[in-house]
Amino acid sequence: MQKLLVFQSLWAMERRQPDGMEWPLEEKIRMIAEAGFDGASVDFGDPAFARRATGLLRQHGLAWQIEAFVSTVEALAPVLETARELGGTHINLLPVVRPYTLDACVPYIEGWRALAAEAGIALNIETHRNEMTTDLIFTLHLLDRFPDLRLEADLSHFLVGREFWYPVSDENHALIHRILDHAWGLQGRIGSREQIQIQIGFPQHRHWVELFLTWWEYGMRSWRRRAGPDDSLTFLCELGPREYAITGPDGYELSDRWQEAQTLKTMVRDLWARIEAEDRGAKEAP
């Protein structure tokens, strides 16, 4: 049976508030477990930190996905070595390299995919600003070159980068749908056409929340058609600290991100449950 795994980003658990108080790692993971998340994302750039974080997650019966910031093909090798040791649902690779042409991207994509395939570990490429996938159209050209490329879709970057008018046109919806048709993981951040991360509980932002729920619904339905019967889709709640989070003149954020992450978790689980029920009803219909 296909499943949805809702993770919380450990990076998103950073407070960065004027009082200087930060939760210890043990407290962060305890909070994630008690809030009912299925797991967390862990940066494997520091193997010692990865061992500590995954050990705590394992103690709480939680899963994790692997975050990898790499700028060369060779830089993925030590991440894969740690991944073989510690496990994880998949690697989410952030391609911290900015080739000027599509042809210049090919050796990176081919190299990363070959190393991951040899290690037997699933690899997704994240859509993110200031990286290889910074631009929507350029990323679509990557999909033309690599039709089976697995993406980790953070759509907030494309919305801000292309500054779509609202309501979003059918043409722009179609471009986002192409991304989602290659998404094997979804990233949970809600933005507007001008701001990468908005407060999801503010009433003036409701239309942006509804837009992202519409996109995530499309992505979930697309994934369910493509994935195996027992596969799991990861949805990572990643509401980041400042400068992602907007702050007031006192330096404090305008909303409670931790509460928003839990609200987002409930939203996407409710969305998944509705899709699952509709699919089940369609199969049972005479």
UniProtKB/TrEMBL annotation:
Keywords: Isomerase. It comes from the Bacteria. InterPro entries: Xyl_isomerase-like_sf (IPR036237). SUPFAM superfamilies: Xylose isomerase-like. One of its GO terms (molecular function) is isomerase activity. This is Xylose isomerase.
